[in-house]
Design goal:
heterodimer; A: 2 domains; 6 helices; 74% helix; globular; B: mainly alpha; Helix Hairpins; 3 helices
Chain lengths: 162, 103
């Protein structure tokens, strides 16, 4: 029962926050709404019994990416200029609505093979086994490390003063 | 009424559509990047929901979500660096005015 109430509250908060991100004219307030949306998504992860992912979501998105975005907004001094739409606003709206309708239709009308096994409760140890254990995703973890290093170097080179 | 897989998938689709609209219709490059983050979050919700309801003990979807978060962090860092470089050289981040490579 508590799970159902939590899901509906978090879902409404996430959707309203996401709508404010694209509809608010003040870019800084849009960024704050984006942080609220990230937190709501972290709560959604908790209702899906993905505790480790919820913590990672808060650490990476709320802690790092949100700070990066707010820093970029501050440094580009575009707050007073706002976030206007381009001339493709109506076609973009139609595309988004069509996408929403088509994917919702497909998802509701598909018979998903839902399993009735209860989920693992503390997922951290199981995730570590998946990522680093035998037959896991060790190669992908190594590639992710190289990708992050390349991204850091690329960002430093791009913003360096000439 | 209990919460099933469909609820999470519909929530994910709604968030993705909002992000899609923002990415297509906005002129401020930072807002476009924020919309892309919204779309990545929506995909993460779908991944974790599939993992929770279809393979509850395998956790494959959560592993994929972790890699999506890694790529999203790298993408945000490089994207915002590109926006800073463009702002420094052209004094604007209006994507309709950044048309140097358009013919």
């Amino acid at each position: 029962m508590g799970l159902i109430i939590a899901f509906w509250i978090l879902a409404v908060v996430a959707i309203v926050a996401a709508l404010s991100v694209v509809l608010l004219q003040n870019v800084f307030r849009a960024a704050l709404c984006l942080i609220l949306c990230f937190l709501a998504v972290a709560g959604i992860f908790v209702t899906l019994s993905a505790d480790f992912l919820a913590a990672v979501q808060v650490l990476v998105y709320v802690g790092a990416i949100a700070v990066l975005i707010i820093l970029a907004i501050m440094l580009t001094r575009e707050v007073q200029w706002g976030s206007p739409s381009n001339k493709l606003r109506i076609p973009a709206f139609i595309v988004a609505i069509l996408f929403l309708g088509a994917v919702s239709f497909a998802m509701i009308n598909t018979q998903w093979p839902v399993s009735s096994i209860p989920p693992l409760e503390p997922t951290t140890a199981a995730l570590a086994g998946k990522l680093f254990g035998e037959g896991g995703f060790v190669l992908a973890v190594e590639i992710a490390a190289i990708l992050l290093l390349a991204a850091i170097l690329g960002a430093v080179v791009l913003v360096r003063e000439k | 009424m209990s919460i099933g897989l469909e609820h999470y998938l519909i929530l994910s689709t709604i968030l993705f559509s909002i992000g899609l609209y923002g990415a297509l219709a906005k002129r401020n490059a930072v807002v476009i990047l924020m919309s892309i983050e919204l779309m990545l979050n929506a995909v993460n919700i779908a991944m974790v929901a599939f993992s929770r309801f279809m393979v509850p003990v395998l956790l494959t979807g959560q592993v994929f979500a972790i890699f999506i978060i890694v790529v999203a962090a790298a993408e945000a860092a490089v994207g915002l660096a590109i926006i800073m470089a463009i702002y420094r050289s052209r004094e604007t981040i209006d994507v309709t005015k950044i048309n140097l490579m358009k013919w």
